């Protein structure tokens, strides 16, 4: 686990690799949950697009 821990501004921080992986897993899980929960409703067929979690992470870092 220490391989994924770095330092930023003198404080402990997770590496971008770990954060990108966690964002990707979370978003993919959300996509699956929404797909299955909306299947029997008028909103069936609505899906979240596939996104690159690293691009999302980089856009948040640059803000």
Structure, briefly:
This protein has 63 residues and is an alpha+beta fold. Helix content is 51%, strand content 13%. It has one domain.
Question: How would you describe the overall organization of this protein?
Answer:
With 63 residues, the protein is α+β, with helices and mostly antiparallel strands. It has one domain (2-62). The chain is built from two helices and two strands, in the order ββαα. The protein has helices spanning 16-37, 53-62, and strands at 5-8, 11-14. Strands 1-2 form a two-stranded antiparallel sheet. Strand 1 (5-8) and strand 2 (11-14) form a beta hairpin. Helix 1 crosses helix 2 (53-62). The relative contact order is 0.14. The model has no long low-confidence stretch (mean pLDDT 85).
Unreliably modeled segments = none
SS field, number of helical segments: 2
Read across the widest sheet, the strand sequence of neighbours is: 1-2
Roughly how many Å is the radius of gyration? 16 Å
Total count of domains: 1
What pattern of helices and strands is seen along the backbone? EEHH
Mean pLDDT across the residues is 85
User: Tally of extended strands?
Assistant: 2
The share of residues in helices is 40-55%
């Amino acid at each position: 686990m220490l391989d994924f821990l770095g330092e930023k501004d003198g404080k402990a921080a997770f590496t971008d690799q770990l954060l990108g992986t966690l964002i990707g897993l979370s978003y993919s899980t959300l996509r699956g949950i929404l797909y299955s929960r909306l299947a029997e409703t008028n909103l069936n067929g609505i899906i979240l697009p596939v996104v690159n979690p690293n691009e999302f992470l980089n856009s948040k870092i640059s803000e």
